[in-house]
Amino acid sequence: MIVTAPSQDQSKNGLRPINLNTDIPGILRLLELVFGASLRAEGRPIIASNELAAQSPAILWRLSPAAAKLSLGFVWEADGRIVGNVTVLTTELPGRYLVVNVAVHPDHRRQGIARLLMQQVENLVRQRGGHQILLQVVKQNSAAVELYNSLNYTTIGSMTNWATSVSRLRRLELNVESVRPPIRELKRQEWRAAYALDCQVLDADLQWPEPLKSDVYKTGFWPRVVNFLNGRQAETWVMHDEASRQLAGLARIESEWGRSHQLTLRVHPTWQGRLERPLLAKLIRRLQSMSRRNVQIDHPDNDELVNALLQEANFQPRRTLTHMRLDLTR
Ligand SMILES: CC(C)(COP(=O)(O)OP(=O)(O)OC[C@H]1O[C@@H](n2cnc3c(N)ncnc32)[C@H](O)[C@@H]1OP(=O)(O)O)[C@@H](O)C(=O)NCCC(=O)NCCS
Fold it and tell me: Among the four 30, 120, 233, 304, which has the fewest Cβ within 10 Å?
């Protein structure tokens, strides 16, 4: 009788769940090779290699909070080397999962590895009773977009990240004081209306990694105290339509110690095209009286008016990410 057993090398080939005890250095090497310096500079992939030095002893990877982010997912191993990876993240909403760090070594591409890794993710999420998988992909990355389309992911929309600094900002031509409806600060009792406007204008799944928190526009004494203790500050400016008694538009600046000022601009559909300039002009005036930091805004890439206004104000587009979703309700 001839007994055949897989050789040790063969047993190491193929797809398997991530093993935190052994895989982190290999995954980091792969992510470094595939995503390189440009994405690291943008805070992607999900962990930076300096958080988990590939040479650190295993016990240190296990203890690192960054390692926990890699713990759910799959790798593809070939001859003892990790040549494919996908990481799954849970979110605060039960049943909602994110996929990040999809990477295949250049020498092993177009062999179906990414497809199998992604199919395994779908199985995992189904087994856990999940109903939705979300991911972000650079809009121009046609290989990855093709991959996700072929696996029935649908496009939700694309968000462009724009950046500049307070000192480089250019004012928009406009007399902010004479615009109608007038721009004023969000009133304390209007936080629900502001949240509703935001949700109406922007699909919840275009917020990443978590959907907008319902109390994000809450103001008043305690939210201010909590913000102060966390080195944060936020102000929201609105245009209120007296006739319909609803918020027609809002603009917000969030500042956190040591980070860029983060802007938000939302205009109700019936007012689109008319309020963007005054609201952005107001934000720029406010920013010019604030600390001289970088400024960022993430905004839907198909909003051509705002794109033009941001360029006029001297923002530069940094990258556009397409958000895709797989619904597992069927
Ligand atoms: C995108 C990537 C993960 C694909 O990995 P892969 O193992 O080569 O993909 P697969 O062989 O499983 O291909 C599955 C499908 O994806 C699409 N695809 C993959 N590479 C493609 C390419 N270069 N051009 C067009 N379509 C491509 C095809 O639809 C393909 O099906 P097909 O081979 O039957 O035509 C890989 O190219 C990669 O690591 N790129 C750099 C990192 C990256 O962009 N990650 C995605 C971040 S969101």
Answer: 304
